[in-house]
Amino acid sequence: MPLKITLAPEEKIIVNGAVLANAGHPATLTVLNQAQILRGKDILTEAEATSPATRIYFVLQCLYLFPDRAEDYRRAAEGFLADYAAAAPSGTAIVATIVEQLTAGHIYQALRAARKLLAHEKEILAHVSDPA
User: Does the keyword Hydrolase apply (predicted)?
Assistant: First the structure.
């Protein structure tokens, strides 16, 4: 089934590891075959991966986009997920969903579930007071 994507001017997209940017007016693309695609709004840079949930999201993103290093990213993701579940038991159900998707080989679905973990972490941190 073809996938239709509309890109805003300057919007970035990663297709099978290649970073592309729309250099002109809004553009619509149709992807006709299987490809690893991530839109700019869903891309997290390594510099932005500074918290436990963002590190999980980042390694899952790398696992999705760069299957040639899948074992390294999968191992890192499993370690980060175990650490997250131990530190924040309220996120255990989300972690379990991510692990389930990873085990089934559904990397994009695991990445989508990791967005829920980002929201969970944000909610937890909102309740932490700043001692400064």
Answer: no
CA distance 130 to 132: 5
Q: What is the pTM of this model?
A: 0.88
Amino acid (one-letter) located at 62? C
Is residue 98 within 8 A of residue 114, CB to CB? The reply is yes
Contacts of 82 by beta carbon, 8 Å cutoff, 6+ apart: none
**Alpha-carbon gap, residue 80 to 16, rounded angstroms:** 24
Q: What is the pLDDT of residues 86-111, one digit of tens each?
A: 999 999 999 999 999 999 999 999 99
Residue 15 CA to residue 13 CA, distance in Å, equals 6
Task: Give the rounded distance of the alpha carbon of 114 from its chain centre.
Answer: 6
